[in-house]
Design goal:
Number of strands of chain C: 11
Radius of gyration of chain A: 33 Å
Structural class of chain C: alpha+beta
Radius of gyration of chain C: 19 Å
Distance between the termini of chain C: 35 Å
Largest sheet of chain A: none
Distance between the termini of chain A: 108 Å
Low-confidence stretches of chain A: none
Oligomer: heterotrimer
Strand content of chain A: under 5%
Order of helices and strands of chain C: HEHEEEHEEHEEHHEHEE
CATH topology of one domain in chain C: Alpha-Beta Plaits
Helix content of chain A: 40-55%
Mean pLDDT of chain C: 90
CATH architecture of one domain in chain C: 2-Layer Sandwich
Number of helices of chain A: 8
Shape of chain C: globular
Strand content of chain C: 15-25%
Chains: A mainly alpha (155), B mainly alpha (393), C alpha+beta (254)
Structural class of chain A: mainly alpha
Mean pLDDT of chain A: 90
Largest sheet of chain C: 4 strands, mixed
Strand order of the largest sheet of chain C: 9-1-11-10
Number of strands of chain A: 0
Chain lengths: 155, 393, 254
Amino acid sequence: MNARFKDKEHLIRMGALFVGAFVLFLILRAVFVPKGFGAYGHYRAGALADNRDHALVFAGRRACEDCHSDVALVRKGSKHERIACEACHGAQSAHASADDPAAAKPKLPDAKTLCLVCHQDNVAKPKGFPQVNPKEHGDGGPCTSCHKPHHPEVS
Amino acid sequence: MESILYHVQGFMYPNEVELQWSILIVLYPFITGLVAGAFILASLERVFNVEAVKPTYRLALLTALAFMLVAPLPLQLHLGHPERSLEMYLTPHTSSAMAMFGFVYLWYLMVVLVLEIWLDYRKDIVLQARATTGWTRKLYRAMALWSDNISERSLEIDDKVGRFITIVGIPSAFLLHGYVGFIFGSIKANPWWSTPLMPIVFLFSAIVSGIVLVMLMYMVVSWVRRTPIDMRCLDTIGRYFMYAFIIDFSLEMLDLIHRIYEADESFKSLNFMVHTKLYTSQVIIQIVMGTVVPIGILALIQLVKLSDAARKSLYALAGGLAMMGIFAMRWNVVIGGQLFSKSLLGYTTYKMAFATREGLLATVILLTLPFVILWVLVKLLPPWPEKVGAQPD
Amino acid sequence: MASDRREFLKTTGTFLILTGAASLAWDQILAGEPEKAPNYNMADHWWAMAIDIEKCIGCGNCVRACKAENGVLLEPFYFRTWVERYHVPEGELEHPQVDSPDGGYDGFPEKYRHGDGSKNFFVPKLCNHCAHSPCVQVCPVGATFESPDGVVLVDKSYCLGCRYCVQACPYGCRYIDPRTSTVDKCSLCYHRITRGLTTACCETCPTGARMLGDLKDPLDPIHEFLRTHKVQVLKPQMATGSKTYYNGLDGSVR
């Protein structure tokens, strides 16, 4: 039996080396592949939770309307009704979730700068959208002298 | 980084302005190409019994191994998280050409190259183990897997198994570099890359570069060792060099002609790029100086009777130009494919750094490293009967 | 310029406030176990986005909100969402002039005149959350994937930073975040939509040009939108299964 394999023995040793390497590979797989990999597809299931685990920066308009229902009432029927509060007032997650909201009170945006972000005339804006040339519209004063931001229609 | 914005012409999607793949990713297909090409030249002798190239057989194999060992390094340097690269083997995404390539690489390195070299050199390894002492002896014994059997029968078996491995190795070499081409060719988002011809073009230019590498090394090593160059060997290699190059050139021209003729939506943008940003590297360096001129030189050698000395000089010249042209081809594919916007409305620029992780210095070091490794390999496993085998620097 | 300094102070101030906000809001989030987001079942949702080009006014609210909500770098290169302005001279459908100054972060300074016969409009762009995503296809390790509820996400602790997915995306929506050396892109505000909120960009869009949609919810307005408008996706010939539907997409849009 030995004699038969004598001349192939070195090949068997090489073969054993390959088998050993493969076993090592299987061990590495068992140890290092993260738990939950492949549960939903070819990815680590925990990545879904990782992507959900971020803090909110914008509170969302429902959070505003919970307390400021009076403002929501004022805005009813106006062209600005559909705009979310934070679109103008900025991210307010801190204010909405604070123990003392008054302490984290949002700063009132400067009307002229803010209004022009949307309403400054621009060739690329849709035709039907209300746009003005600030130099020609009104008398150069702040927009709020004629338009209330929460109900901008001038009667 | 802001400075790149100054060089943006037209419009690019904002996230496209900075190039994703640097010169290291140009280097990587170049190196794997050399491996595939060197191996195929070696296989000519073993499998197709092209006796003439026998003097280069062992040198070609060792060269392939030296470059193969360096091949993953540009990739590791380029990754954002090289420490996670084992993930490609542990959880490979089977739809990703890059992931499957990891296994093709491993297969080729271990089963084809290492096994074939081991089987061809085993007798010499065992003889060295018997003839040396101390740590050198331990090394050779380990390389022989502590076997001492070099009987006639065992060497016959080695030869048969080696032949089989070489036969398997040829399609493996095709797969190795064809795969790299597929990594680019399968990206539908990029019209410069997306063509079924890409794997084949890559493969044939790889074969050319590998043949040239072995040929140049053979000439240099013979000069250093002051041994005469076997002209029959050199002329045969020269002929294969020419055949492979003609096929490669035809394929590249086919791609170009096809694009120009069909003139699809990407043509205008790409055409402008080739005429401006890529003009020097593609038209001048790759096509004219790097392909047409070497093919012309090789054809000249076939048509006109020239002296040995003249032919040697011309082979060296053609080889040098071809190498430059093939490196330029990788550059034009990788960098060229990122210089234009996928909106087809603009262009950016590639700012190559020098002393950074992905800079020119790293590239030069990575190109020098295989020769250092080869020097060690030649010392350990001399390709020639006499043990005088120093590599030039 | 004085306005540059004001911008800088405004940005820094906002950033500081937001960092404080984040830590405060964290208490709220920790209420439920992250694994089981309360009342959210992935199988009940299939997220998409609808964009109405005829309503976009290029105000840049979405770009600013996204950067704030997701902590995206303010450097000029990286955007999870951005807005492009198209200027299509008469008869030059194939050669529009497009610009996106800082992604539209500070709006669009006027560059064009009325009455020159050209067509001008804004196009917001973001990750299309493709159903047959080429970026997912090429990822070598499974670090990017489509969630069971249709959102293409990135696993930042698994990503190698090989950039293959960035090359494979036809829409240019991916980039490498230099802080993590991994890829980053629009996550459809996954942390918000799984809590019943809408994305930051949709929240702050003043005209309703951007609308998050849940294709599995029979009451979602997106069904009506898709039925009553002539919708298109970007680069339909690539068959990516893009789930970002545009109304009013001109032929010149890339």
